[in-house]
Amino acid sequence: MTRATRLQPLLLLALMAAALVVVFVVGLHLGTTELSMSQVIGALLHQGEWTEQLVVLEMRLPRLVLSCLIGATLSVSGVLLQGLSRNELASPTTVGVNAGSGLGIMLALVLAPMTALRQPWIMPLASVGGAMLITLLVFALAYRRGSVLPSRLLLVGIAMSYGSSAAMLLLSLRMDFVTHSRVVSWMSGSISGGNWKSIYWLAPTCLVLMVVAFSRARVLNVMSLGDYTAKGLGVGVERQRLAALTLATMMTSACAGVAGQIGFLGLAAPHLARRLVGHDHRVLLPAAALSGAFLLVLADSLGRHLFSPVEIPAGVLVGILGGSYFLYLLAKTKG
């Protein structure tokens, strides 16, 4: 490998990081109350009007930090799911993770609505519990004759996703208007409730899980060669597949407990990163993290600005941006 070949992925990652910084800074500027860059810098330095400091430090900055954290985590989760299934259409939605986390939150809201709404740790805990339960069921149902076929894993995941969604609809019939409104907001995916308290508990969880995910890069590269080859090279395929699935589930459900369902990000961001840096997971994982953070920061910033003071949920804009990107790819390859 030549020096130029080694430097190319690093250059691409540096450019992606620079793009993230640019959109992050623009996000501090945009909103219902537009601030000049000098006002933003003054607020970051704890100078200027107290109202400007309040807007920047307590409203916009935590939302943008949370967007970076959640976007990166969901994208890395998508790479793990696509790697373990060897299918680029795999995502937290298609394997039932999103539906499982939603079902857990719905159960918490039905069984103890006031406690779930007042205690900030109830929703994330219910999200992780529901997602882990559905994931274990998916793996158990897909496990046959000592192995798990990736195609069977996706089919079972889709079936469990539909079943969980149906159960969520039934549970919604038992909710009052306020609780149901909270669920609708959660399902649309929004960073609007983000604050420093959410970051303090979510950041250590997501950062540790992402470090573990990055350490699986070589294993994912070997698994991409196929089960037979991977086993021949000494990789315990089923054990690694279950570990990657569990890791992706924990990452997705932890984020869903704070920001709701932004499932399309786990499909779109890995695709974008793969087109930029290729299929080597040692580069793909950090590239996907940067792509996901960029997309979610962009979506949240546009959602606050486009129809201000009305806010568009970030999950809706991620779907629009990601869907437009896939339509562009389809039109480009059609000819």
Automatic annotation (TrEMBL):
Topology term for the membrane: Multi-pass membrane protein
InterPro entries referenced in this protein's UniProt entry, alphabetically: ABC_BtuC-like (IPR037294), ABC_transptr_permease_BtuC (IPR000522)
GO cellular component assignments: plasma membrane
Transmembrane portions of the chain: 12-30, 64-83, 95-115, 121-141, 153-173, 199-221, 283-302, 314-331
Annotated keywords: Cell membrane, Membrane, Transmembrane, Transmembrane helix, Transport
Location within or outside the cell: Cell membrane
Top-level lineage group: Bacteria
Biological process (GO), any one: siderophore-iron import into cell
Signal peptide range in chain numbering: none
Recorded GO MF terms: transmembrane transporter activity
Keyword Flavoprotein among record annotations: no
Protein family: Belongs to the binding-protein-dependent transport system permease family. FecCD subfamily.
Name under which the protein is recorded: Iron-uptake system permease protein FeuC
Organism from which the protein derives: Aeoliella mucimassa
